[in-house]
Design a protein that fits this description.
The complex is a heterotrimer. Chain A is mainly alpha-helical. Chain A is built from 12 helices and 4 strands; from the N terminus they run H-H-H-H-E-H-E-E-H-H-H-H-E-H-H-H. Chain B folds into 3 domains: 225 residues, no CATH class; 182 residues, Rossmann fold, CATH 3.40.50; 81 residues, no CATH class. Chain B has 25 helices and 12 strands. Chain C folds into 2 domains: 191 residues, 3-Layer(aba) Sandwich (Rossmann fold); 146 residues, 3-Layer(aba) Sandwich (Rossmann fold). Chain C has 12 helices and 16 strands. Chain C is globular, with a radius of gyration of 21 Å. Classes of the chains: A mainly alpha, B alpha/beta, C alpha/beta. Chains in contact: A-B, A-C, B-C. Chains A and B meet through helix 4, helix 10 and helix 12 of A and helix 7, helix 13 and helix 15 of B.
Amino acid sequence: MNLNIFVQHFINALSLGSLYGLVAVGYTMVYGILRLINFAHGDIFMLGAYFVYFATIVYKLPWAVGVVIAIIGTTICGLLVDRIAYKPLREAPRISALISAIGVSFFIENFAVVVFTGMPRPVVQPPILMQPIVLPGDVRLIPLGILVPIVAFVLVGCLLWLLYRTKPGLAMRAISFDIETTRMMGVSVNRIIALAFGLGSALAAVAGILWALRYPRVEPFMGMTPGIKAFIAAVFGGIGSVPGAMIGGLILGFVEIMSVAFFPTLSGYKDAFAFCLLILILLFRPTGLLGERLEDKI
Amino acid sequence: MQRIRNLILTIIAVVLFAFFLDKAPELLNGYWQRILNLIAINAILALSLNLIYGITGMFSLGHAGFMAIGAYVSALLVLSPAQKNAMWILEDIYPWLLNVNAPFIASIIIAGIVAAFFGLIVALPVLRLGGDYLGIATLGFAEIIRILITNTARLTNGSLGLKGIPAYTTLFMSWGCLGVVLLCMVCMLRSNFGGVLRAVRDDEVAAKMMGINTFKVKVIAFTLGCFGGGLGGALMGNLITTIDPRMFMITQTYNILMIIVVGGLGSVTGSIIGSVLVTTMLEWLRFVENPITIGSINIPGIPGMRMVIFSLLLIIVIIFRREGIMGMREFSWDIFFPKAKPKPKHEKSNHESVLEVEDIVLRFGGLSAIDGLNFNIRHGQIVGLIGPNGAGKTSAFNVISGFYKPTSGTIKFLGKSIGGLSPDEVCKAGMSRTFQNIRLFGHETVLQNVMTGARIRQKYSWWMSLMPFVFTDVLREDSAVKAQAMNLLEQLGLSEFAEEKASSLPYGAQRRLEIARALATRPKLLLLDEPAAGMNPQESDELMKFIRRLRDEFDLTILLIEHDMKVVMNVCDYIQVLDQGIHIAHGTPEEIKANPRVIEAYLGHENTDKETDQIIERHYAKKEGQK
Amino acid sequence: MRKFLTALMLVLMLCTVASADEDVIKVGIFNCLTGQNAFGGQLELEGTMLAHTLNPTILGKKVELVIVDNKSDKVEAANAVTRLIENDKVNAIIGTYGSSLAMAGGEVAEKAGVPVIGTSCTNPLVTQDKKYYFRVCFIDPFQGAGAATYAFRNLGFKKAATLVDMANDYSVGLGKFFRDSFKKMGGEIVASLFYQSGDTDFTAQLTALIDAKPDIVFLPAYFAEGAIVLKQAKELGATFRFIGADAMDNPEIVTLGGDAVEGFMHTTFAYDPSMPEMNETAKAFTAEWNKIHPDKAPNVNCALGYDAYILLKDAIERAGSAEPQKIRDALETTKDLPTVTGMTTINATHDAEKDMGIVEIRGGKKTFVGIVVPEI
């Protein structure tokens, strides 16, 4: 492998990794606050992509409008899911909410099959984002590949600001620490959780839109793989840590691309490399890269 | 009597069911026979995952991986060389694999064992993780298994999968396997070892202090669960007669998880009910995808509707019955075991010096929690460890009982060094403790809590509990332990609560139960962490008597942390005082009362909270009273 | 709640009671209407239903279709076939997309002695040692060799590479047969890369392929993944050409892939709406399809779904009876039956022997290039 090819791989990895990171950040919002493994995140993500598809292809709206509609629509869906399937289980054992999440995931996927059919649909890519920029050495970079990391990092910055510099952010962190005490402090817990869900869903929508742009097709099961990858990335980085999720996503992207780059004959084992690394990291850092060490109080 | 009655009822039920299975081919068509088979297989899978997750509390998402191992091992063993030769069309099969063959029954057992072996390999490193981290690690493992199966085509035929597996999974086979699994599991869960598994789930820290090597227990449960997963996978392969790696994706694990949660996490009965419900429901709901004619209205079939309705039903069930159908309850014919009451025997200890603590230093980073602690406790003494908040008392307890490793210094217990031992080893050496914030196994009965404490004195191994009718030691030892536990409860005035859930007890009784549980390990030295916390003066008076009684009746040596000066001064023979990690004084209660450094430590502390104020008030009130 | 559940169960019980009508020929369809392969199964179902609408009676008896979903899942596939045979007592079965699903269902049908006609399950293992499984499609080795022959002989490429979905038996099989065939003809395989079903990012594999400098890359992918691969190849500036197989045959490939699919070729069955010379059956099919689905062009899956029904109809008519055993015997002797995808003959291994076509995307349109005769 020469340097040019390596640079190309590096750019590919950065683009894929930040996309994973973006999905994982939305995932970790809900995860970090409620400790709920939201298996339906990938499916909410899928809804975001479908909203864009309907807005831009079926109803021929301009791109920007489509994006706004998708974010609002997905957020509403996310809030509905929380209200119907998770809120009644707030006091229940965690596993009940988890099964409810699996139920929601099945529901959204199959609902999509019934309504949208199983046929994959195309997504319009704005040409301006897709025109490859040819760097020296025939290394190619599409503008979308730069846009994704930028959006991801800006959103992570905003989230960190929200979490650490604002009142609702403080309340969110308090809820993740101890929901009962927070309630007694006069914080309207349900509203804050709804806010977190809304944010998580909006982030899922953004990720779904960018994903659909990068890999331009939407189908009912498109959220499955990103959902699992986001879960992995979130755990990589440490559950509940926003920067951790981003870093986790990047690591995942780099492992996937570089394992193929260096061992092309073993490309069938690509995902196995990622999982092995994940397990190794967890063995040395049992709570992920940036996760808090939880001491069992005796 | 009741026991015999229940046994007879069970046998009648089993015989009736066997008769039904025998007649099933005539009564039911092949479709419903297949559903019955699937129910049994799903029940085996659910039971095994329930053992891992519901009963022992390890969140595992890797069951599909172990199923895959089982299914492949069994299939490779039962397929004939000719079939194998014909099937490996892309790559050549390994020559040694071609002629490997085993009869069906052997193949499913080997399948279970191989899966269990892989389970063990995974468990050893991964079970150190907790919660969701364990979940993702096991999920990762299952995915790795799947990817390996996909890529090692010479061994597994890769993504082509295997086909033409003889359909050995008959109704008798699947239900027979379920029967054996069920019997072993119920026996194990009813034995004291089963209680230990649930104790680990409820409170791992407390279980350690009961002398239980929790890591070992978790590894055993996980490995057994993997055996079940492998067995279920093997039966599944021989039912469907064709397998490929895509059968064993994460959704397979979700399905099993769904069954155990709908049935009731931790309930064996629930797993069975769950598998019946989920399996039949999925098939029944097929009608929504066919065109339906109701009166004159014609509704065309809609593909996908079935899963939409199924997932809605799932959400509804979970919202309205969040604990699942059975919760943690079990079906039973109302079993009550007769109560026997042999007297407990206490071994005499001849060691003069029970505990010797020398130069203990404990640092967290740059922070010193304890900075040079020295003391001795002689046999039969009651020693108090006091000091203002943050003095390092509980840290000292944690060091002595093995939860923290001291930065330097030595601890000798009964003449032997115990520095660096884990809590369960310390417990086995003869030390037990209670916790400042009560740590009971909340979901278990009071009796089971105490029996868990007695597990270290039982000689039978965990695997014997799978077949108690063969290894009758299990039944004998368990009933002995039960009798001893009842006796202990009686001595501590808790026998009326024996069958109640520990978490439902009043506060004072919970404190006493924690002590009873600690006593069940037959300690020589008992550490009590603030036994009087939250008690009114009358209760603490009783406590003082109780502590002395404990020492005399159980031949104990006691070290206690206490803030209630009245208790400390009245009950202790000797007192050690800590302040901000420094050992500032020791002596008899009289000496301590007069020690100016102690008074200063309590008074001079800036963060004197309400509690400390009270201590000082009481302290001076008492002095005045003496004048 | 309890009342509701009881009521629900009653309804369910009623619905599972099968009606036994003597004058009806029951044809079961098990296909993937939901799940990962839903896009293929739904198209095939539409094809079969079209054939049924056009031929609602066989031997003067009414034909009733019983449609069961197999959720693209093996366990469900076996259940679905059992249900069709045991509960609905079907005379014959049509299905399915996906070889592994066909294998799972085939075992059940084999034991019960009910004939099944596979639509697009192309793995050789599906009909291996099976007395009751037939198919209207040709098999993977034939098609892999076809793609290699076209690339080596017709296009004159000497260096090839493969990009294969490791988790998909279809893809793995075709990749292997392509490589073998290409090497046998004297070509060189410069790289062989893999991905897993569900992947969406292929940049790493494509960059490695660019590094290996092949003339042509064989891509036996499903069309949804294939279109994304082609898009990313274009973004990365790949200059080699791609050739795929029948799973890429879907009108959506152009909408999904846009200008990136220009010049892409794939082997397929000898049917395409763009074909210049269609046989009568194909013409009728195309016309009827366009009437019912004016917004959607037919593809090979629709045609195969249609053909399966035609094959069954022919067998029942020749047998003069709808008895499963007789249908089976008649199916075995099918010879030169005109179907949408050319003349169909069932050979000794129960596979359809038919012509293989090559389609190329030219000017954003699928264009039927011609017939290729694979060198096996």
